């Protein structure tokens, strides 16, 4: 049996504090989230779900900070940060009792993306597209410094303008 290629960096703990660049594609790269018009992404109903559920991640998990994000016709790009320092404060800014802080388990990036993709899929299925699914797994890159962050942030922002040259545009 052929050994499966690992998608994540070997030995790295993806529940560590850090910023990660994510790309996840729709199965067979089908254009299901909308279309690019005049270098801008026009989201359809499914694209709106993909956007809304990205925002849901930060509401669901106190330690998640969302940076730039874009929904493209057949994929998403995002910068997501895990910061366990954020769980030391309640949403209202007050300090929780220590037992609460100690019971919160930081989900690794793969579980966060699993939650995102599952909730997007379920909502799209409820709208009548029972065949919708994501490609298996996702691509990630650990953002190591401010220059990388700046370059990736610009890439995400400008992605709709460069759709005609995008290798995910088939």
- Strand proportion, as a percent range, falls in 15-25%
Query: CATH homologous superfamily, by name?
Result: Transposase IS200-like
Sum up the overall morphology in one term.
globular
Query: How far is the first residue's CA from the last residue's CA?
Result: 31 Å
- By DSSP, the count of extended strands is 6
Taken in chain order, the helices and strands follow as EEEHEEHHEH
Task: Provide the low-confidence segments as ranges.
Answer: 1-5
> Which topology does CATH recognise?
Alpha-Beta Plaits
When the domains are counted, the total is: 1
The pLDDT mean sits at 88
From the alpha-carbon coordinates, what is the Rg to the nearest angstrom? 17 Å
Instruction: Outline the biggest β-sheet.
Output: 4 strands, antiparallel
Specify the oligomeric state: single chain
**CATH architectural type:** 2-Layer Sandwich
CATH top level class name: Alpha Beta
| H/I helix tally | 4
Strand order of the largest sheet: 4-5-1-6
Q: Structural class of the helix and strand makeup?
A: alpha+beta
Q: Please bin the fraction of helical residues.
A: 25-40%
């Amino acid at each position: 049996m052929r050994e499966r290629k690992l998608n994540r960096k070997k030995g790295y703990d993806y529940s560590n504090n850090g910023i990660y660049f994510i790309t996840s594609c729709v199965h067979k790269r089908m254009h299901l989230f909308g279309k690019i018009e005049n270098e801008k992404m026009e989201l359809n109903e499914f694209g709106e779900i993909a956007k809304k559920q990205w925002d849901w991640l930060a509401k669901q998990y106190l330690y998640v900070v969302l940076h730039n994000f874009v929904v493209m016709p057949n994929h998403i790009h995002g910068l997501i940060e895990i910061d366990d320092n954020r769980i030391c404060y309640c949403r209202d800014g007050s300090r929780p009792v220590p037992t609460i802080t100690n019971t919160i388990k930081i989900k690794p990036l793969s579980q966060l993306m699993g939650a995102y993709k599952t909730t997007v899929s379920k909502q799209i299925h409820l709208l009548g597209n029972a065949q919708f699914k994501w490609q298996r797994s996702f691509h990630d890159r650990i953002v190591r410094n401010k220059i990388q962050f700046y370059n990736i942030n610009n890439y995400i922002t400008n992605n709709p303008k460069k759709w005609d040259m995008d290798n995910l545009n088939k």
